[in-house]
Amino acid sequence: MKVTEHIKKANGNTLFSFEVLPPLKGQNIRSLFDHMDPLMEFNPPFVDVTYHREEFVYKKRENGLLERKTVRKRPGTVGICAAIQNHYQVDAVPHIICGGFSKEDTENALIDLNFLGIDNVLLIQGDTRKPEREFVAEPDGHAHASDLIEQVVELNNGIYLDEELENAKPSDFCIGVAGYPEKHFAAPNMETDLKYLKLKQEKGGDYIVTQMFFDNQSYFNFVEKCRESGITIPIIPGLKPITSSKQLTILPQLFHVDLPMELSKAVEACKNREEVIQVGIEWTIQQSKELMEYGVPSLHYYSMGKSASVYEVAKALF
Ligand SMILES: Cc1cc2nc3c(=O)[nH]c(=O)nc-3n(C[C@H](O)[C@H](O)[C@H](O)COP(=O)(O)OP(=O)(O)OC[C@H]3O[C@@H](n4cnc5c(N)ncnc54)[C@H](O)[C@@H]3O)c2cc1C
């Protein structure tokens, strides 16, 4: 079932959903299910699975020279989605990225997903390939999520890359896109970012999932600005409980988000990791309660391979 249908069916009640990462290469599906099992108690109608492209790592050879290797640390998004749907009978939402994919690769991935009975995709540009600093599109690929949306919409209309196909069957994917309450880091300003977010809706985006944020006011302002700009699709807030004091500096670096003073002070005052985890849980519960009162379609948690904090948050709310 489509994410938008789940939202409609909930009839104004807030859903619980979360995002998982494919396990590191070498692990098996059980390691992911062990992480997901406790969270399934709260009946998520859909679960997102991230996509991780290859990256370059440099290994020092005996002669002192550096050897460049290409590695994919977390492969398996498509297979994991099929395994989740099969094992839990919930909808899995694979993230599909522009980076590293030609249009042909994208079409083949979409055909696989269609055969597997996957109804939803979250379409994004994808992170830059480490250690590169700028995103580079494939020569025959897509530069932006909006271009990727166009391809999926074409397929939904039965238009494949091979124009000579006869009697080609259309897919019917529901399309999620990413939004940034604190602006995407590469956008010169919020207005420009919103212009492109609106373009994603116009091209066929059905709903938005936001980057994590720690101050609900940034989400409320974002929703208001989106609505003023004519963005009408559901905007699902993304939340992440803090689990270590290191995250006070890592999260702003990685995700370009602000942490409120009150939260950073509370984390700094903690004497050990357990106390930090507790602060993270309580902060996220407060955020979630306020967002629920506001009437958000779903509370979407970034579990990042650790379910314990999300479990405690969900237990307090669902
Ligand atoms: C909910 C969520 C899930 C994510 N999941 C993953 C994942 O699984 N794997 C992963 O690698 N990364 C993931 N990311 C990170 C994401 O790939 C990065 O944030 C990326 O830098 C931007 O992705 P986007 O789809 O928002 O890009 P885009 O929509 O392409 O936007 C990127 C930048 O270009 C601008 N822009 C947009 N469209 C155009 C256009 N047509 N012309 C010119 N400029 C334009 C925007 O303003 C923005 O500054 C996720 C992010 C979010 C919020």
From TrEMBL:
Coiled coil: none annotated. It catalyses: (6S)-5-methyl-5,6,7,8-tetrahydrofolate + NAD(+) = (6R)-5,10-methylene-5,6,7,8-tetrahydrofolate + NADH + H(+). InterPro entries: FAD-linked_oxidoreductase-like, Mehydrof_redctse-like. Keywords: FAD, Flavoprotein, Oxidoreductase. The keyword Oxidoreductase applies. Pathway: One-carbon metabolism; tetrahydrofolate interconversion; Amino-acid biosynthesis; L-methionine biosynthesis via de novo pathway. Its cofactor is FAD. Belongs to the methylenetetrahydrofolate reductase family. This is Methylenetetrahydrofolate reductase. It comes from Gracilimonas halophila.
